[in-house]
Amino acid sequence: MVIDKTTRTRVDLGRANRRAALREIVFQGSLPRTTIAQRTGLTGASVSRITKDLLAAGIIAESHSADAATGPGRRFVDLSVNPLGGYVLGIGLNLFQQSVSLADLSNRVIELVDLGLPSLSNPNTVIDRIVEVARSMLARLGGDRSRVLGGSIAATGAIDPERGLLKDSPTLGWCDVEIGGRISEALGVPMIVENLPNSLILAEAHFGIARDFRHILLVNCALGMGVSYFADGILLQGHNYATGIGINIPARAEDLPGTCLDDVAGGFSVLRRMGISPGADGRRLPGNQEAQALLKVVAAADAGEPAAVEAVSAAGRTLGTTLAQFSGLVAPELIVLAGPMAGAPAYAAGAKQGMDALLAEGVDGVPFKLSATSPQAAARRLAISEFLVNRDLDLDALRLQEAS
Known about the structure:
Layout: H1 5-28, E1 31-32, H2 33-40, H3 44-56, E2 60-66, E3 75-81, E4 87-93, E5 98-104, E6 109-114, H4 123-139, E7 148-155, E8 158-160, E9 165-169, E10 174-177, H5 179-187, E11 191-195, H6 196-207, E12 216-221, E13 225-231, E14 234-235, E15 250-251, E16 259-260, H7 261-264, H8 267-273, H9 287-302, H10 306-330, E17 334-338, H11 345-358, E18 368-370, H12 375-390, H13 395-403
Parallel strand pairs: 4-7, 7-11, 12-17, 17-18
Antiparallel strand pairs: 1-3, 2-3, 4-5, 5-6, 8-9, 9-10, 12-13, 13-14, 15-16
Helix pairs in contact: 1-2, 1-3, 1-12, 2-3, 4-5, 6-12, 8-9, 8-10, 9-10, 10-11
């Protein structure tokens, strides 16, 4: 059958309109059809047709809610994502945590396994273990296995998301690993791969603490530092997808020599200040041991241990002084601190103190928010966004599954 250009354009437009309607429902929550029409610019008839198809496929569901503005008794039909309309996989991979999780479309966790791998040096071993755990999760879904829409991997390092390639991860010791394609082929599930800061900022911008902001700077504060920037609602990737992969901005700490921000504001600097890594012999601990050592220092700082509090606070102050200068360049509305360091109150307070110290009198600093989103939770949110909003759903197949 030959499909002419007019027919193809009409089909493409219909798919684009469906994605626009779904975007509002997925990102904004429960909405009536009239609000969806207003927010998308679609006609009421178009919204009704689109939502009828999505209801039949089980992707969305109806609920009734009273309209407070019109008084009691009047009820409207709202549309929201049907949690059981599909499932996604979320995989988090860094030195602090390696986990596989399965969730429904409301991001309710059905199953989560922390792999706790003793070594991450061999990518083949890590990928095989991820596949083994994910395959078992999918098998336990039984007949719902066919409603798995896709999965996402949030990994530390430089990522080429187009090819699902982990290009370089110094902390893992990996280089040019086709992690996305290998896991996708093994599971029979489409997978996307994104670096951890980008995964976190997309999760917070679409679903979390940064939903009301259009210009967001996120700093992932771990052993090293990673940055992501959301400019006017668009994720900036940079040349060769390299934006924010390790911050090599020259910086100077109060008690460490001038070097890069990675070394004076992150977990590495805390371990140096505490005399943990490098040790007295000048040798560094293996990466996974450094990660665990940092978590212990953060816990000690939270408990009020003076040396730990000062080490964590000093790293935060260095971050704050650098962000004060950097923020003048990109002008974010909001700075989000994420990662294991951000969970320490002493670190966040130090960052605010460092930023305020460089601001001119009477000038307000950029507000901070702290992200509690884990890598695997960010990965699940990214999968929901990608496979519900950014890609075309096979509604015919979903309708058949819903009917059965």
